[in-house]
Every structure is written in C-alpha cells, then in structure tokens.
C-alpha cells in the first residue's frame, strides 16, 4: 500500500482446524469456474515463496493519520483483530504491513507491525499449525543511508512482531538517494536468512529493472513490486510497470485495489468518504463513477457476488497480480474471500475496462513517478 503522511513528514466460514479451505463463489452460467490446482497458492515472482492469490493489507491497523477518522480505541483494536482472524479462517493467509503504518513517524496510535505480531501470537496459541505469510516494508527515509540501514530497520520490525524472519521484505518507496545500497541490503537480508523473498514498492519501470538486475547478479530474484492498481487507477498498465513485471517474472502486488472503498458502491456523491480520502474521492468524482459502479453491481448480482468481489476478481484476472485490500473488520475480510474460486468472463473484463477508461484517473502516490 501507499503511505500517506502528514505534510510535516512526507507527502503522503471458518474452516476445520488444519484443513485448507477452498473458497468458491456462486457463479452465473457464463462464469468460469476454476479447478483446485488453479485455486492454489501462487509463487511470488521467481522466489520460492508461495502466497494466497489474495492478501490483506494492514495499513489501517493502528493508523490515525489517514484512516479511522483520526482516532484509535479498543473498539477499533478488536475490529482489526477480528479482521485478522476472519482472513485466516477464510483461507487468506498473506498479510501486508509496514514499519510506518500506525507509527509515531506517521502520527499513528500503535504500530501495525506490533498488532500483527500480537495477532499471530494469539492465533498460534489456539492453533499452533496456522501459517501466516508476513510482508512488511522498509521506509526509505532521507537520513537512512546504505545497506546497513535496511538490515537495522528489518531487525527492528522483527522485534516489534516478535518473529525471527518474515516472508517478504519490501522497499516501501524509492529513496531520494542510496537506492543501490538499499537493494544490497535486501540481498543481505536474504543471505542472512532474515527473509524468504524481497520486493520493492512504488517503483517505476526503470527502477524496477535496475533493482531486478542488481539482485540477479547475486542470484537473488526480485519477487514483487507493490503498486497502486485498481480498475480506476491503471497507471501500471500505462507506464510500463505491469508489462515489465510480466516480462521479468516479478509479481505485481496491487494496493488500494478497491480504490480505498470508492468502487464498493458504499460511497455516493451525497455520502463521500471521510478524512483524507474525501479529498480524492470527491462528490464530483463519485458522480462520474456512478455508471461504472452501477455496471459492477449488475455483474455482481448475476454472480451472486458483491461489487467488491467483482472488482477484486477483475484484478486477479489480469494475471500475475495479487491484490491486497485493506480489512478493518471481520465483515470486510470475509467478503474479500468471495473474490476467489471463480472468474469473470473476458467480455465482462473488457467491458469494465472500457467503462473505466472513459474516466479521468484519480490521484495516486507521487513517489511512483520518481
């Protein structure tokens, strides 16, 4: 996911225990049902790490600068915990966080990594066999220089989560300087056994290729590039990032895949989102989105699916894409699981793209253009 900070900082159901659950949707006759092999986990790029085809973003957990209406309390904490448990119960075991989510640096209440580590520990006490694929990120802050800064930050993240290693470690955004050192740090983390796979985030095509080649010289695959990607924000298709990921065998992890809720049908011109999101998804923008949102709902109704599930399925259908919608509560996490196990027809995929192409792109994360 992207990072949105205050100006002073930076721009910005339950399966049986031990049994893997297969999630299948109720599809119309025109839908494409997937076999069990296609429903299995996918490898991230050329790494050996396998994750579920859909992940969960923990950006909102502990955050008070962008999400949660600038407040955090026990109710929101319990909701985040139920979101985690519902995700695991639904078979979605890939969880993405970052050292800056909920941190003091971003004026948060409690670090998202701390919460995730706590949730994992509590879950394992009840179910020791549960496996969670954890992804977190290094913040390329201006005063952080060289490969050692990456290792130091990673060790701090591991301490917060009380883990000895993580599955995926990513550079959150390109640094103002020192990027080659950061990539070296990722390679060191792999060689020291602190991570299973490494990736980048908000990287342009050129930066992606450079990082790929630098790691390749050490025999380490670049597993992923996490970027803003949704039906109404398709910059990765237009700036060469998606094509480069496909060419190089790097998985594209899509953050804000439901456009921070704008594509769910929850918001209307009369009821726009609150907080910073309201500055992006204004009543004017939501008015222009209505024809697309209406069509998404029509398609969802034909499959007995929600608009959220349709939008996520559209991304999965692009191939080599793992969406990570943010889950604040159990209801959202359960709903996300319904995006798996079925597929939109090609005609529906193309029609939604055509409708979305008529809209002006929404605002993205500035660093992806560096």
Automatic annotation (TrEMBL):
Sequence ranges assigned to domain NADP-dependent oxidoreductase in this UniProt record: 53-355
GO CC term (a single one): chloroplast
Entry-linked SUPFAM superfamilies: NAD(P)-linked oxidoreductase
Domain of life: Eukaryota
Annotated transmembrane regions: none
Keyword Oxidoreductase applies: yes
Compartments reported by the entry: Plastid, Chloroplast
CDD domains: AKR_AtPLR-like (cd19093)
Keyword hit for Nucleotide-binding: no
GN (gene name): LOC101252603
Record keywords, A-Z: Chloroplast, NADP, Oxidoreductase, Plastid, Transit peptide
Protein name: NADP-dependent oxidoreductase domain-containing protein
Annotated source species: Solanum lycopersicum (Tomato)
Pfam families (UniProt xref): Aldo_ket_red
GO molecular function (one): oxidoreductase activity
